[in-house]
Design goal:
Blueprint lengths: L4 E5 L2 E5 L4 E7 L14 H14 L3 E5 L9 E10 L2 E10 L3 H18 L5 E4 L3 H10 L3 E4 L9 H6 L4 E5 L17 H18 L7 E4 L8 H9 L12 E3 L4 H6 L13 H13 L4 E4 L2 H16 L2
Parallel strand pairs: 3-4, 3-12, 4-7, 7-8, 8-9, 9-10, 11-12
Antiparallel strand pairs: 1-2, 5-6
Helix pairs in contact: 1-2, 2-3, 8-9
Length: about 300
C-alpha cells in the first residue's frame, strides 16, 4: 500500500495515496518537445486545459518555458561580498524573460479559473517573480524543475506564498546534460539530494506538509539511467515525502521502442508512456504527470482498483 499523505495546498488539504492523482500538462510555449507549440495560442491553451479537466485531470500544470533537452537555460555562480563576508548565489540566464513567461501563462491561468473556479492549477516555473504572479492569478501550486537551485529568490518567495510546492530533482541544465559526469548509482544520488533539498526548503520556511518531491525522470539523467530509477522508485519512499513522477512521452521511452534505428516521435509514445506510468504507480507514485489524460485516467482507474483491493 502506498503511504498516505495530507498535502497542504493553499486553503485546501489534498489526500495523496488512496487514489492516483493526474497532473495534466499544459505547455504554453512555441518549442515544447511534446507538442511543438500546439497550444502556444492562449485561446487554444485554455480550450485544451478545460478539456484535460473534463477528461479527468486533477491538476493542470501550466508552463511558459520549455526545459526540454538542449534548451538554453544556463545556471551560473554569482559571488557577492558584504560586511558579513562572501556569499554565493545562483543566477539563471535564459532565453525567456520573466516578463515574456508571464505574458504566456497569466491569461491562460486567469481564464481557466474564471471558467472553472474549482480548477487546481500548478505553475511550472523556476523563477520567483513568475511563481508569485501566477499564484496571485489563481495558481495554487508551484512546480520548480530546478528544485530551488536556480533562482536565489525562490525559497523566500515560496515560503511566503499560500501554495503547495513540487520540488524536482535535476542535475545540471538542459544544455549541459550530455556532458555531465557518470553516476554509478543514480537512485542513491537522487534519494540523497532530494532529502537534502527538502531540508533546505524547510530551513527556508517552506513547511514539509506543503512539499511533494519529483525524481526528475530525464532531467540530468541519461537514457539508460531512467530505467533503474523507475525500477527502484519505491526506494525513494525513504525520503518520507509524497511522490510525483512524470514519464510521459520522454526520450527513454522512445529508445526502448526504437526499431531499425528509428525512434517514435513524442505523439507516438502513448503506449510506452502508459507502461512507464503504471510502473511508477505500482512503485509508489501518488501523482503522475501526463499529456494524454483520458488514456491515463482509464489505466489509473484499473490500477487503483487493484492496489486498493489489498
Amino acid at each position: 500500500m502506498r503511504p498516505i499523505f495530507q498535502w497542504a495546498v493553499g486553503d485546501r488539504t489534498i489526500e495523496l495515496g488512496r487514489r492516483t492523482l493526474i497532473m495534466g500538462v499544459l505547455n504554453v510555449t512555441p518549442d515544447s518537445f511534446s507538442d511543438g507549440g500546439q497550444f502556444f495560442d492562449p485561446g487554444r491553451a485554455v480550450e485544451h486545459g478545460l478539456q484535460l479537466l473534463e477528461q479527468g485531470a486533477d491538476i493542470l500544470d501550466v508552463g511558459g518555458e520549455s526545459t526540454r533537452p538542449g534548451a538554453k537555460v544556463e545556471a551560473v555562480a554569482n559571488t557577492t561580498r558584504s560586511s558579513g563576508g562572501t556569499s554565493h548565489a545562483t543566477v539563471v540566464k535564459t532565453a525567456v524573460s520573466p516578463e515574456e513567461e508571464l505574458q504566456r501563462v497569466l491569461p491562460v491561468i486567469s481564464k481557466i479559473k474564471r471558467a472553472r473556479p474549482d480548477a487546481l492549477i500548478s505553475i511550472d516555473t523556476y523563477k520567483a517573480t513568475v511563481a508569485r504572479a501566477a499564484v496571485e492569478a489563481g495558481a495554487e501550486i508551484v512546480n520548480d524543475v530546478s528544485g530551488l537551485q536556480w533562482d536565489p529568490e525562490m525559497k523566500k518567495t515560496v515560503a511566503g506564498l499560500p501554495c503547495g510546492f513540487i520540488l524536482m530533482h535535476m542535475r545540471g541544465t538542459p544544455e549541459t546534460w550530455r556532458a555531465l559526469p557518470p553516476v554509478s548509482d543514480m537512485v542513491s544520488l537522487v534519494k540523497r539530494e532530494l532529502r537534502d533539498r527538502v531540508q533546505q526548503a524547510e530551513l527556508a520556511g517552506i513547511k514539509r506538509k506543503r512539499i511533494v518531491v519529483d525524481p526528475g525522470i530525464g532531467f540530468g539523467k541519461n537514457l539508460e539511467q531512467n530505467y533503474p530509477l523507475l525500477n527502484r522508485l519505491n526506494e525513494l519512499q525513504d525520503v518520507r515525502m509524497p511522490l510525483l513522477v512524470g514519464t510521459s512521452r520522454k526520450s527513454f521511452i522512445a529508445k526502448a521502442l526504437e526499431k531499425n534505428g528509428i525512434r517514435p516521435e513524442p505523439q507516438d509514445r502513448l503506449y510506452g508512456s502508459l507502461a512507464a506510468m503504471m510502473i511508477s504507480i505500482l512503485k509508489g507514485a501518488q501523482i503522475v504527470r501526463v499529456h494524454d489524460v483520458k488514456a491515463a485516467a482509464d489505466a489509473i482507474t484499473v490500477a487503483d482498483a487493484i492496489l486498493n483491493s489489498r
